[in-house]
């Protein structure tokens, strides 16, 4: 079957191709009676707008790329859903690229998005190497960095105050009377993990209580790494009474391990997660966690990117959000 063209629609409606174009693109007033005839012809013939041709003429694809490190992580799954929602409301299709925390894969996706001439890119990077951004910069592609620490001279940045978050969680546990607090961090090269650990250390210093480096280990923000990290923590002769875990996914893994060891959370060990994913509240015990305002952050990210697409020369911005502690069943006084 031959592809229906704008000329076919014009012939069916008895109008010019220019009028059909104005109806489709809403570029000029068209009388309601004429508009109705055109829309009826479009429906009758099954005409579909040639998005590629329209994009070529307008210099816009109405498409943005979203690069995330781990789509299997429920935090990033919730994040990408919110970004996709706000992107759609702003009139953009969102291409999601999952890097599996691999820098080579991230670089390949950036090159692919540049080749596809997307209007902009939202990047949650697998690292903090500014060299990663070179293809975007050299091809003048607007982009926003999310959940990672980059200089505002390089890009618009939206992040959480992770250092303060780490302080707030640790301060809460110290207020409960815990003095031996273990910590399962994220990967050591991730800026959010580094900043949360800095907050953990600062809280101990302000309380005048030394922390035990032997009770700190790292994970990969996954269930299995949280399970394994708990093994490492619990084999220590100086066992902690509380544990600060840098993601809810790892926290669930750690609690599962504790249960297999016959431990009761929070009677034998209190535990705080991070992110406030939906599963944290549904889990048993429900997990005390630090809430990231994902919806507001996602909305801001999309607003920054759409503004950058329209005004490429505007001053770059760095917006930092504060989160809040959500107290549930996994913590108690020592």
Q: In words, what does this structure look like?
A:
With about 325 residues, this protein is of the alpha/beta class. It has three domains: about 5-50, 434 Repressor (Amino-terminal Domain); about 60-160 and about 295-320, Response regulator (Rossmann fold), CATH 3.40.50; about 160-290, 3-Layer(aba) Sandwich (Rossmann fold), CATH 3.40.50. Helix content is about 45%, strand content about 15%. The strands form two sheets. The chain has a six-stranded parallel β-sheet, sandwiched between helices. About 40% of the residues are buried.
CATH topology call of the largest domain:
Rossmann fold
Q: Total strand count, please?
A: 12
Q: Approximately how much helix is present in the residues?
A: 40-55%
Strand content: 15-25%
Domain count: the total is 3
Largest sheet: 6 strands, parallel
Strand/helix succession: HHHHEHEHEHEEHEHEHEHEHEHEE
Give the uncertain stretches in residue-range form: none
What would you call the shape? Answer: elongated
Given the helix and strand composition, which structural class is it? alpha/beta
What is the name of the CATH architecture of the largest domain?
3-Layer(aba) Sandwich
CATH class of the largest domain: Alpha Beta
Distance between the termini: 75 Å
Going across the biggest sheet, name each strand in turn.
Answer: 2-1-3-4-5-11
Integer-rounded radius of gyration = 25 Å
List the total number of helices.
13
Q: Considering the protein shown, what is the CATH homologous superfamily of the largest domain? A: Response regulator
What do the pLDDT scores average to?
A: 91
